[in-house]
Amino acid sequence: MTNAHPSEIDDFDAWESRPLSERARPQPPYLPGLNEAQREAVELLDGPVLVLAGAGTGKTRVLTTRLAHLINQQRAFPSQILAVTFTNKAAREMKERVAQLLGNAVEGMPWLGTFHSICVKILRRHAELVELKPNFTILDSDDQLRLIRQLLDAEGVDDKRWPARMFAAQLDRWKNRAQGPGQVPADETGFGEGRGVEFYRMYQERLRTLNAVDFGDLLLHVVTIFQHHPDVLADYQRRFRYILVDEYQDTNVAQYLWLRLLAAQHRNICCVGDDDQSIYGWRGAEVGNILRFERDFPSAQVIRLEQNYRSTPHILAAASGVIAANRERLGKTLWTDADAGERVRLIGHWDGEEEARWIGEEIEALARGTRGHDALSLDEIAILVRASFQMRAFEDRFLAIGLPYRVIGGPRFYERMEIRDAMAYFRIVVSPDDGLAFERIVNTPKRGLGDKAIQRLNQLARERGTNLLEAARIAAGGGEGITRKGASALGQLVGQIDRWAEMLRGTEVSHVELAEIILDESGYTAMWQADRSAEAPGRLENLKELVQALEEFENLQGFLEHVSLVMDNERDDAGAKVSIMTLHGAKGLEFPAVFLPGWEDGLFPSQRSMDENGVKGLEEERRLAYVGLTRARRHLTISFAANRHIYGRWQSSLPSRFIDELPPETVEVLTPPGLYGGGYGAAAAQEMTGSTLERAAAEASTYNSPGWKRMAERRASAGAGQGRGAHSPVVNATASARFETGTRVFHQKFGYGRITGIEGDKLSIAFEKAGEKKVVASYVTPAENQGGSEDIPF
DNA sequence: GGCCAATTGGTTTTT
DNA sequence: CCAATTGGCC
Question: Where's the UvrD-like helicase C-terminal domain (predicted)?
Answer without folding.
Answer: 313-588
